[in-house]
Protein backbone atom coordinates (compact mmCIF):
# COMPACT_ATOMS: atom_id res chain seq x y z
CA UNK A 1 0.00 0.00 0.00
CA UNK A 2 1.39 3.39 -0.94
CA UNK A 3 1.66 5.81 1.95
CA UNK A 4 2.69 9.24 0.76
CA UNK A 5 3.33 12.06 3.15
CA UNK A 6 2.11 15.54 2.23
CA UNK A 7 5.04 17.87 2.93
CA UNK A 8 3.99 21.25 4.27
CA UNK A 9 5.52 24.70 3.89
CA UNK A 10 4.91 27.42 6.47
CA UNK A 11 5.67 28.22 10.07
CA UNK A 12 6.82 25.47 12.40
CA UNK A 13 3.40 25.52 14.06
CA UNK A 14 1.62 25.14 10.69
CA UNK A 15 3.93 22.30 9.75
CA UNK A 16 3.11 20.42 12.96
CA UNK A 17 -0.61 21.11 12.60
CA UNK A 18 -0.66 19.48 9.17
CA UNK A 19 1.85 16.75 9.88
CA UNK A 20 0.61 15.34 13.21
CA UNK A 21 -2.81 14.23 11.84
CA UNK A 22 -1.01 12.47 8.99
CA UNK A 23 1.21 10.62 11.46
CA UNK A 24 -1.82 9.68 13.57
CA UNK A 25 -3.55 8.38 10.44
CA UNK A 26 -0.51 6.21 9.70
CA UNK A 27 -0.68 4.74 13.23
CA UNK A 28 -4.43 4.14 13.15
CA UNK A 29 -5.19 0.49 12.75
CA UNK A 30 -1.56 -0.54 13.26
CA UNK A 31 -0.89 -2.12 16.62
CA UNK A 32 2.77 -2.96 16.11
CA UNK A 33 4.92 -0.60 18.18
CA UNK A 34 8.07 -0.84 16.05
CA UNK A 35 6.13 -0.17 12.85
CA UNK A 36 4.56 2.93 14.37
CA UNK A 37 7.81 4.25 15.86
CA UNK A 38 9.49 3.75 12.47
CA UNK A 39 6.86 5.79 10.66
CA UNK A 40 6.96 8.57 13.27
CA UNK A 41 10.72 8.92 12.70
CA UNK A 42 10.41 8.81 8.92
CA UNK A 43 7.59 11.36 8.78
CA UNK A 44 9.32 13.89 11.05
CA UNK A 45 12.67 13.46 9.27
CA UNK A 46 11.02 13.95 5.88
CA UNK A 47 9.13 17.07 6.97
CA UNK A 48 11.79 18.84 9.03
CA UNK A 49 15.00 17.31 7.66
CA UNK A 50 16.58 17.12 11.10
CA UNK A 51 19.89 15.30 11.45
CA UNK A 52 18.63 12.40 13.55
CA UNK A 53 15.18 11.32 14.73
CA UNK A 54 14.85 8.19 16.80
CA UNK A 55 13.72 6.20 19.79
CA UNK A 56 15.64 4.50 22.55
CA UNK A 57 13.65 1.85 24.43
CA UNK A 58 14.23 0.74 28.03
CA UNK A 59 15.48 -2.85 28.16
CA UNK A 60 16.55 -4.15 31.58
CA UNK A 61 18.67 -1.33 32.98
CA UNK A 62 19.61 0.47 29.76
CA UNK A 63 18.19 2.48 26.91
CA UNK A 64 18.67 0.46 23.72
CA UNK A 65 18.57 1.97 20.23
CA UNK A 66 15.20 1.51 18.52
CA UNK A 67 13.73 2.72 15.23
CA UNK A 68 15.47 5.82 13.91
CA UNK A 69 16.30 7.86 10.81
CA UNK A 70 19.73 9.40 10.38
CA UNK A 71 23.38 8.48 10.87
CA UNK A 72 24.38 5.40 12.86
CA UNK A 73 24.14 5.97 16.61
CA UNK A 74 25.34 4.55 19.90
CA UNK A 75 23.26 1.53 20.85
CA UNK A 76 23.12 1.59 24.66
CA UNK A 77 22.78 4.43 27.18
CA UNK A 78 22.75 4.05 30.98
CA UNK A 79 20.31 5.88 33.22
CA UNK A 80 21.56 9.39 33.98
CA UNK A 81 24.05 9.39 31.08
CA UNK A 82 23.85 12.05 28.36
CA UNK A 83 20.65 13.88 27.53
CA UNK A 84 18.69 10.68 26.88
CA UNK A 85 19.71 9.02 30.14
CA UNK A 86 18.93 12.23 32.03
CA UNK A 87 15.45 12.44 30.51
CA UNK A 88 14.84 8.81 31.51
CA UNK A 89 15.94 9.55 35.07
CA UNK A 90 14.20 12.92 35.45
CA UNK A 91 11.04 11.87 33.57
CA UNK A 92 10.77 15.20 31.76
CA UNK A 93 11.56 16.73 28.37
CA UNK A 94 14.92 18.42 27.86
CA UNK A 95 15.58 21.06 25.21
CA UNK A 96 19.33 21.49 24.70
CA UNK A 97 20.17 24.57 22.57
CA UNK A 98 23.88 23.72 22.47
CA UNK A 99 24.88 20.13 23.13
CA UNK A 100 28.47 21.15 23.91
CA UNK A 101 27.17 22.94 26.98
CA UNK A 102 25.29 19.90 28.32
CA UNK A 103 27.47 18.11 30.88
CA UNK A 104 27.99 14.49 29.85
CA UNK A 105 26.40 14.83 26.42
CA UNK A 106 27.00 11.67 24.38
CA UNK A 107 28.31 12.78 21.00
CA UNK A 108 27.08 10.13 18.57
CA UNK A 109 27.76 12.59 15.76
CA UNK A 110 30.04 15.63 15.79
CA UNK A 111 27.55 17.29 13.44
CA UNK A 112 24.83 17.40 16.10
CA UNK A 113 24.49 20.88 17.64
CA UNK A 114 21.15 20.94 19.48
CA UNK A 115 18.53 18.45 20.54
CA UNK A 116 15.21 17.76 22.18
CA UNK A 117 14.52 14.55 24.10
CA UNK A 118 11.02 13.55 25.23
CA UNK A 119 10.21 10.75 27.67
CA UNK A 120 7.85 8.01 26.47
CA UNK A 121 5.54 6.91 29.27
CA UNK A 122 3.54 3.77 29.96
CA UNK A 123 1.45 5.03 32.85
CA UNK A 124 3.91 6.56 35.32
CA UNK A 125 6.86 4.56 34.00
CA UNK A 126 9.32 5.81 31.37
CA UNK A 127 9.65 3.01 28.80
CA UNK A 128 11.73 4.92 26.26
CA UNK A 129 12.83 8.31 25.01
CA UNK A 130 12.29 10.12 21.73
CA UNK A 131 15.48 11.91 20.66
CA UNK A 132 15.75 14.50 17.89
CA UNK A 133 19.09 16.04 16.93
CA UNK A 134 19.75 19.04 14.69
CA UNK A 135 22.89 20.13 12.88
CA UNK A 136 22.05 23.72 13.88
CA UNK A 137 22.17 25.42 17.26
CA UNK A 138 18.92 26.24 19.10
CA UNK A 139 16.64 24.36 16.71
CA UNK A 140 14.03 23.40 19.30
CA UNK A 141 11.68 25.38 21.52
CA UNK A 142 8.43 24.99 23.44
CA UNK A 143 6.45 24.70 20.17
CA UNK A 144 8.36 21.51 19.35
CA UNK A 145 7.95 20.35 22.94
CA UNK A 146 4.17 20.86 22.89
CA UNK A 147 3.53 19.06 19.59
CA UNK A 148 6.05 16.28 20.14
CA UNK A 149 4.89 15.54 23.69
CA UNK A 150 1.32 15.45 22.36
CA UNK A 151 2.32 13.04 19.62
CA UNK A 152 4.35 10.79 21.92
CA UNK A 153 1.43 10.60 24.38
CA UNK A 154 -0.72 8.98 21.66
CA UNK A 155 1.71 6.10 21.06
CA UNK A 156 0.35 2.84 22.47
CA UNK A 157 3.42 1.41 24.19
N1 LIG B 1 22.72 12.84 22.12
C1 LIG B 1 22.28 11.79 22.93
C2 LIG B 1 22.84 10.47 22.50
C3 LIG B 1 22.07 9.82 21.42
S1 LIG B 1 22.48 10.37 19.89
O1 LIG B 1 22.44 11.80 19.80
C4 LIG B 1 21.58 9.67 18.73
C5 LIG B 1 22.52 12.00 24.40
O2 LIG B 1 23.44 12.70 24.85
O3 LIG B 1 21.75 11.45 25.12
Instruction: State the name of the first-level CATH class.
Output: Alpha Beta
Task: Round the mean pLDDT to the nearest integer and report it.
Answer: 95
Enter the CATH topology name: Beta-Lactamase
Hetero groups bound?
Answer: methionine sulfoxide
Rounded radius of gyration (Å): 15 Å
Domains, number: 1
Low-confidence stretches: none
CATH superfamily: GAF domain
Encode the helix/strand succession as letters.
Answer: HHEEEHEEEH
Largest sheet: 6 strands, antiparallel
Shape: globular
What is the spatial order of strands in the main beta sheet?
A: 3-2-1-6-5-4
The proportion of residues in beta strands is 25-35%
Terminal Cα separation, in Å?
A: 24 Å
Structure description:
By secondary structure, this protein is α+β, with helices and mostly antiparallel strands. It is built from 4 helices and 6 strands. It has a single domain (12-153), classed as GAF domain (Beta-Lactamase, 2-Layer Sandwich), CATH 3.30.450.40. It has a 6-stranded antiparallel β-sheet with strand order 3-2-1-6-5-4, sandwiched between helices. A hairpin with a 2-residue loop joins strand 1 (52-59) and strand 2 (62-69). It is globular, with a radius of gyration of 15 Å. The mean pLDDT is 95. The structure holds methionine sulfoxide. The site of methionine sulfoxide has 14 residues, from helix 3 and strand 6.
